[in-house]
Amino acid sequence: MTMVVNINGDATRVDEGATLGQLVAQQKLPRQGVAIEVSGKIIPRSKWQTCTLSNGDRIEIVQMVGGG
Question: What is the largest CA-CA distance in the chain?
Fold first, then answer.
């Protein structure tokens, strides 16, 4: 079964029981320079593999960009 989560405002289907780590891999995001908030709570990188997503979660992903 699948469920729907919102990633930066876009509805995205993921497998039921998916973890944040699996989502990061599915979205092909880098592991460094990324901050992720799930339904208002920032999730440390060390918890990505154990953070289970729920139907309707609001996920905000921010990638750090260098420059000057």
Answer: 45
